[in-house]
Write a structure and sequence with these properties.
- The strands form two sheets. The chain has a two-stranded antiparallel sheet. Strands 3-4 form a two-stranded parallel sheet.
- It is of the alpha+beta class.
- 37% of the residues lie in helices and 17% in strands.
- It has a single domain, classed as Ribonuclease H-like superfamily/Ribonuclease H (Nucleotidyltransferase, domain 5), CATH 3.30.420.10.
Length: 168
């Protein structure tokens, strides 16, 4: 949202720091997938941002794009979000037998490494003041590119979660 995430910050001794914001409630919706390639011993981060809320149709389009980049079988660990369900999603799963879904328990953000991605993004944009959704979108794209380049950062998202870490 354009209203910034507030985090602790430094300020002059005896003076309370103030974080200004513009009271706009506009937002950007986000999707992210972390990938692990056991053969190449590399991780990837795929993201998509848009102004409107994501639906199952957007999720299917995102997965189709992902499948163009990934070879072989893909195991997808999914939370129980509504955008991960429905007939359009089931048709995609039926059409691509190499795509396998393993659901997370009903509410288990501690297992979901992408929750760590969002924590990282929020930490990097905390106390910021994007003027509009275009600037927020640019900030998120920039953060995604920066995060994508760091294999150590991507591995840390899995290590922090309660999932087993890759052996490398």
């Amino acid at each position: 949202m354009l209203i910034p995430t507030r985090r602790r910050t430094w300020g002059a001794q005896g003076l309370t720091p103030y974080v200004r914001y513009n009271f706009k409630h506009d937002k950007i919706s986000a999707l992210a997938i972390l990938t692990v390639s056991p053969r190449r011993k590399r991780m990837g981060l795929y993201t998509q941002f848009q102004r409107e809320n994501f639906t199952a149709i957007h999720t299917v389009d995102f997965l189709r794009q992902l499948l163009r980049h990934l070879r072989g079988h893909v195991l997808l660990l999914w939370d129980g979000a509504a955008i991960h369900k429905g007939p359009v999603v089931q048709r995609l799963l039926d059409r691509y037998p190499r795509l396998h879904v393993e659901p997370f328990p009903a509410y288990a953000p501690e297992l979901n490494p992408t929750e760590q991605v969002w924590n990282e993004f929020k930490g990097r944009t905390a106390n910021g003041l994007p003027w509009d959704t275009n600037e927020l979108h640019r900030d998120l794209d920039s953060q995604a590119r920066r995060t994508r380049r760091s294999q150590d950062k991507l591995r840390s998202f899995i290590r922090i979660s309660d999932l087993p870490s890759p052996p490398w």
